[in-house]
């Protein structure tokens, strides 16, 4: 989720979202999919739905006008979304219709990311150290109290079953047992990390402000990776072909073919200086990008062709 493009401001009065002609080109902050279905969410409660791998999108109604920052599809029926002023939404029909499912009513809290490991086990992270978990499919949520309160920006599942948590002040935490215990990892950076791309054999790539990228093979020692940009890195994704992609400002994408040891700058064709805020690979291989100018689809052949030295 991109903190750099949206302010954490209270909005005491809420209402249904407005079906807007320009919603498809508005600020969208997260995209997630499963099968041919994908959902993107963003400002003013905008929710866009695609049922053809992101080739076509349409806005659906939402019971909120608050900024939505995270979305997660459990399957082709159950979809969750979270956002500012502690709003939580749930859909039981694949994102066609939505209802509020709030765990609390706190106008000062911004939920920034949501993850489910299965239909019952899920997590929400957000501002001021907010960390919620559920073991019953969202019927109830339990808040874990933090020793400190940095904004927690992103929670990522690892191929080995572990979890990675990133946030302000160089925060990187790892859990190998589905959230029962978290190990804080020391990194040589005190700025904000906006996400992690965990590796299949352990370790991860973490990224954040001013183009900062760090890599660790085991979560112990961290190596600073030379970055071809000084722009804020909003999102990262491991593609099915093994490449890693990071999203930066002004249409920039960073591509690695060596598990994050080096990156080359890629131009996003037709981006018109859009800033990608979230990445998802569709079932047919296309790359879906939520951005400050709507949600877009990029063919991998175009991504490969535009990589420059």
Walkthrough of the structure:
The protein is mainly β. It has one domain: YVTN repeat-like/Quinoprotein amine dehydrogenase (Methylamine Dehydrogenase, Chain H). 2% of the residues lie in helices and 39% in strands. The protein has one helix and 27 strands. It has one helix at 300-305, and strands at residues 28-34, 37-42, 47-50, 58-60, 68-73, 79-83, 88-91, 99-100, 111-116, 122-126, 131-134, 142-143, 152-157, 163-167, 172-175, 183-184, 193-198, 204-208, 213-216, 223-224, 235-238, 244-247, 252-256, 264-267, 276-281, 287-291, 294-298. The strands form seven sheets. It has a four-stranded antiparallel beta sheet with strand order 1-2-3-4, with no helix packed on it. The radius of gyration is 18 Å and the shape is globular.
Q: Would you kindly provide a brief summary of this structure?
A:
The chain is an all-beta fold and 309 residues long. It is built from 1 helix and 27 strands.
Tell me the strand percentage band. 35-45%
Assembly status: single chain
Question: What is the number of helices?
Answer: 1
Low-confidence stretches: 305-309
Order of the strands making up the biggest sheet: 1-2-3-4
**CATH class call:** Mainly Beta
Number of domains: 1
The radius of gyration computed from the alpha-carbon positions, rounded to a whole number of angstroms, is: 18 Å
Strand pairing plus helix content: what structural class? mainly beta
């Amino acid at each position: 989720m991109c903190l750099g493009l949206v302010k954490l401001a209270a909005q005491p009065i809420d209402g249904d979202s407005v079906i807007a002609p320009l919603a498809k080109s508005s600020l969208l902050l997260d995209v997630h999919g499963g099968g041919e279905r994908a959902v993107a969410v963003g400002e003013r409660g905008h929710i866009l739905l695609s049922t053809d791998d992101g080739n076509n999108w349409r806005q659906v109604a939402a019971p909120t006008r608050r900024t939505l920052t995270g979305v997660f599809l459990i399957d082709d029926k159950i979809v969750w979304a979270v956002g500012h002023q502690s709003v939580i939404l749930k859909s039981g029909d694949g994102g066609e219709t939505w209802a509020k499912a709030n765990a609390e009513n706190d106008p000062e809290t911004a939920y920034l990311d949501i993850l489910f490991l299965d239909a019952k086990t899920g997590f929400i992270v957000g501002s001021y150290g907010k960390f919620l978990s559920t073991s019953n499919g969202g019927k109830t949520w339990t808040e874990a109290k933090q020793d400190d309160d940095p904004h927690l920006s992103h929670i990522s599942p690892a191929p080995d079953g572990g979890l990675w948590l990133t946030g302000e002040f160089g925060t990187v935490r790892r859990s190998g047992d589905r959230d029962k215990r978290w190990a804080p990892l020391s990194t040589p950076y005190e700025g904000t990390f906006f996400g992690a791309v965990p590796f299949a054999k352990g370790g991860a790539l973490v990224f954040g402000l001013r183009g900062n990228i760090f890599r660790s093979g085991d979560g112990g020692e961290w190596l600073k990776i030379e970055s071809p940009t000084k722009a804020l890195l909003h999102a990262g994704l491991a593609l099915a072909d093994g490449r890693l992609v990071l999203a930066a400002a002004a249409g920039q994408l960073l591509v690695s073919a060596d598990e994050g040891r080096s990156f080359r700058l890629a131009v996003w064709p037709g981006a018109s200086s859009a800033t990608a805020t979230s990445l998802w690979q569709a079932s047919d291989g296309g790359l879906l990008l939520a951005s400050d100018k709507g949600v877009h689809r990029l063919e991998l052949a175009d991504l490969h062709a535009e990589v420059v030295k």
